[in-house]
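Tutorial, part two.
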Amino acid sequence: MLGVLVRRREQQEEIIRNIPKVLLDSKILDSFFVAKMLSLFLDVCEECKPHIPKKIFQTLCDFVFKQILPVGTPVQQSKKSPKIVERFFHHSQKPEIQTTAFEKKAEKGESSTYDLSVYGEQQLCRDHCNILMDSFGHLVSCCPAEALDFLQTQMKEDAEEIRVEFLRNLKMIVGRDEQSSTKNRKKPIVEAVKCLMDDHRQTVRKAILSFIKELLRSQSVEGCAVWDMVAYIFQQFTVPFNQPGKDHLPNQKEREKEEHIQELCIDALEQLNTSAEGMSKALWPKLLLFVVPAPYTPTLVPLCRCLKELAAIRQDESILFLGSCKGVNLPSAQGIMARLLVLASNPTQRGSWALQLLHVLHSNIHSAVRKLWSKQIPCLWEFFQVESPGVSSPEWQQKLLQFLRRSLETIDDNTWSQNLSRELENQMTSYSDQSTEKSFLYKALGVSLASCDDLNFVQEQMQHLIKNANYLEASEREKVIQVLSFSAVSHFDLTLATLHAFGAEMGQKIQFLDIVSRYKDYQRGRRSHIHQTLMLTYGKVAAQGPKELLLSRVENGFLKRVLLHHQMSCQVLGVSIEIKDMNLKLAFVQSTIDICQAIHQTKDFQNVKLSCKKELLDILLDFMKDEPLDSLETPLRQKAITAIAILSKVKPLLSTEDIRTVLDESIKSLFPLPPLEQLKEKAETEKDVLDIEELYTSSMDAFGDLLKSIIEENPTSELLDEMFQLIDPWFTERECSRERALQASFQVLAAFQENVHLPEGENFPQFGSLVAFLAPYTCDRSIQCRQWAAQCITCLMYIQAKSKVTYAEEEEMFSAYAELQGDVSSDLFNASTRMAKVISVYFPSDQALDFIEAILEDLVSGNQMCAMAAGHWLLTILQDCGDGMEAQISAILDVFYSRLPTIKQDDLRGVLVDAVSVVAHFHLDTVFNSLLCRRLPMDSETGELWRSLGQDPVLALLILHKLAVCITQPSNFQAASHSGSEESEEVAEEEPLKATCAIYEVLSVLEDEDVLQELFTDLLYALLWQVSKTLGQRMPFCGGRRRLFRREQQVSEGNPCRLSVASLKALILKVTSDPSLAEIGEVNVWALLRDPETHQKGVCVLTSRLFQNGLLTPKAIQNVLPWMNSESEKLRLTGIAFFTEVIQDPMLREREQLRSILTTLLQRAGDQHPGIRRMALKGLGNIVLVAPDKVKKQKKTIVAILLGALYDAKVVLESLEMLALVLPRLKQKEVSFLFKDITLKTTTYMSDDNTDLRKAALHLFGVLAEWTKLRYKRFFTEQVRKSLVPLLIHQRDPSPKVSEACRATFLKCVQFLAKRKLRGYIEELYRVTNLNLPNLQGHICVQVINAHPELRGELLRRTAGYFQSSWEELQTRALELTGVMLESMQVTDLDQATWEFLLKSLETFQKSSNQDLQEVAADLVTYISKKWGELPERKETLSRESINNQEIDPYCVTQPDTTLEGLSTQSLHK
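Running the prediction step on this input gives:
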């Protein structure tokens, strides 16, 4: 409502006068609401502009700031401190303001309803503060003069909190640009803030900077004192860090605080909005004032950005002439150019903005450069963006210097260039000594002097520079060098004259009075630094100066002057001393390098002859000799070698002796150094590590340049031989030495490749020997050695092949080189071999012998990897080039045979053997005939040669066929037949054994399946025959002679059958991948074959596997058939075992052969040899199984034979097993009366000590239980009852197999023991319950005894019989079963003999060493004592009640009743 009324002019005065009363009356309302209403009212007032008396204005400000200021400040405590109240309100207005009623009451200390302080007793939210500051902003717009007066009055308050809070809230007003009316608010506020700029307290300064930041980022600063605000920012960079009278620690803290202030300043500048209204007018071009001075360097990034934008905005104005501006002393055009150009030399963000600003100001620098800079600077900007940030490359600096030189040429104003030189000199202190900018500044100063035509000015500047420089400072020395060298571009003679004059002054005779000062110079090192600087300056002047003027002055004007300064640096007061200053040496070397390089850059350098060359060379060699061999700390070694390389090209050329001396000294200075990694360990920092690595690399590169320089002047084969003679001794065991030698070898060959071109058709004489010498190192342990060696081989290829190398060959070499960087040995050898394949294309055959002799030296070297690589290269070259070596083949074989016995390592021996095989590919007759004459079993080298020949399928086919014939000669069959009848130990025949071993050697490397398939049948027949023949024989040589094949065959003396089995194994494993042929379960088939006791089992297993894999052909079966009737027991055994499994062949069953085999088996069932009898029984059983229709008439005979075998202890196991297999296939009439005999005999083996016999007997008993017919049921029931104890006890047999068989048999026999209900219960119990449950046997036993009480005594006696078993496990099980039986028995059920035997056995078991047996016996004794009394003689019957009163013991097993039988088996188990 008041906002509406105030628009009426007749009511404005009354409404404005009542505003304080309205505010007081509104204190009961929400303060935020009141503030919002006030803001709306004042917004209307700002629009209609009513007159607001100062008193009312003061009251409204009081209302606002009492709420704004934080609680606890002096203003908020005004009620308690009247003095602060007086300071808070304007002192000039206080006497004129009439005291209101509420103020009078306040002064009297009374409570007043009009007290405004109630609004200052609460914390305000952010929105509340914003509303209040909006209200104050409206007040400022309504009454700007009163607002300025009010703010200035409040700013005079010295309280830090008040000032900071005022600034914090005032920046809300200046930062808002929503309305156009807000522009009027900023001017009085900014003017008021200026009052605080002399406050140096940290918090106030930060608050001011925050205020300025908001102001600068706003959209309008029209009419504000923006320049004063910006100037205040830059003033913060001139505040000194260190204050007198304070210690270091506070200074450090002050420094950190000032750095933080400067960061705020930079942030404020970065926020400066150059497009704000009034900003460009206020700041342009005044901001240029801060570009040049050094203190403002941190602000250059935002400063250049602002200036660039401002210049773009003001580009429509007239061109600004730097150096003059109203009210501001702007820097000169030369100052701006020098500053920005030097800053641009460092490609950082600051350099980027400097270059951009320089581009924008091109019209302000000089009118002549507008067109040039408009083209040049964009090109520089493109190159600048490619540069690495923070890394100033020489190319970038060169472009800037060229830009400067062209600009000065375009300006063509001598005075302007002089002023630029002065500006550059004045700005030297603006940069640190080691900075990129300062180094560039020196060069720019030299360029500016070079562009000046006033020689007097230039000479004056040079003399001033060279005489007044502080040579003890590195930056000062660099200044002299750079300025003089770059000025020499245009003032060459003047620069030389200045250097000569200054050097002559140093060489003048010393007066007596100057001795003390001269001595002080020596002590400080000043004179040495001067000599060092002058030598370097001569070198740089020669490098920068015009080359057309150099040659006439190079010796007298440069080199001799350098030598003179070197000599003077070696003297102290006229006395010669040894130079120990490394910097002097480096200066001399660097100067020599620069001068010699400058000579080479001239057109007529070949006509130059240096008379001082010998002297320079001697000094450089002495420097290298003095370098330590255990460290690499300075670049002197590298620079000296570089200097010698460059100097060697200058005439007079070096003689052969000089070349040898130079190379030898260089090698002795480099190669003995420790490994690079060891050198790095001496470094203290990461930078030192990088420096050492760079020094090492550059030193080796310098040596390569030296080699190249020498070869360029004398590219002959003799020089090449000389160089390799110097390098060869360094191919040592030291890895680092080999690396350097190989690197040097590559450098030699690379230089030779560039400078030597062989005529067409001519071979490189050293090609074969150098390839053999260097190629093995392609597989060195060191990756660096491998890489250098590969590069050497590549160079040799290009030298030999000239320009014939194809793209595919280059790619192959490059790919192999890349693979050499790996660590896997196989990959390295593969890559090296690939390189050899490429080299073999250009290998000259007439150098084969030289190559082989040289590479065999590497084969016997100590380096294993290199030796193997040498072998790969040897084989590759032989494979690819062997056909052209016919003229040298005899000599080559002689070399191989002579080397073979001397090499003991298997892998290296294999290389030579393979080499013989490769030669045999091209010259088979010569090699094959020589091998046939060598002794095989006694000569291991011959065996290796056989293996090498077996790798070729064609050779292998021929060799294997002949060897098989050798084994199976008819004479050998006959010899074997006669020897089989002898009882004495036999000796194996030598020739077949040699052939057998040869077959093994060939098969061990043969991979061709076609050859194996073609020869498999013949080889199988021959080797199986040889296995059978050598079974049980001994070796045919004396023990004192060398044994046969000491390798993986594990040959044992006296068992040649092992060799035969090994060959057979090799054959079979070559044609099948069946893993069971190597090992079947826990039985090794090959071990079975070579053991006379298990040979037949091994033959069966082997035949079975061959049959399953389809490897038995009709031809193979037909070949073995005659063995069944052989006179030799060994062949009969092998033949019978073979056909035992072959019978299963379905095709054989349909043939007539089966009848003859059956007849033979029936005959051999009675053979004298037990093994033959066993195999015959097994064969008969298999015939019944696989061909029952074919043997109908012979079934009874077969069963009778199997029954008779049960009485033969040597074949009883096979008989039991065969009966178990055969019976289910036989009818009752085919067994008839033999059933009882089989059953009775089977029960005798159920408790046999032999585990296999027990298992087979129990299994057969189960088969008999299933097979039993009605006719024999009573008989078998009786046998089951008699065998009940074994059936129960062996269910927990120590052997798991026996235990499992017994359980299965017991289930089958249950039908003969119990009634149907009990039988069902037991079967269910077995099917569901865990069969390993300890009390399961007890449950079953109780059930059986209760069903057959008459069996109690008999069962107990049979169980007691197991007390005498040799197995403690069975004794324990018998005791447990006895305890179960005694539960269902009374003492009257026991006869006296059983009772006494039981007690005696228990007494014995209690003393047993077996803990389990002892515990079971003790428990059983306790149980008997509780049940029948303590004395053994007691036999009276115990009453039922006394038994029930005793506690349950471990043997107590609950007897099943009707309830128990009704429960589920799962419940019983639980």
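Strands lie at 571-572, 575-576. In part three we will examine how such features are distributed along the chain.
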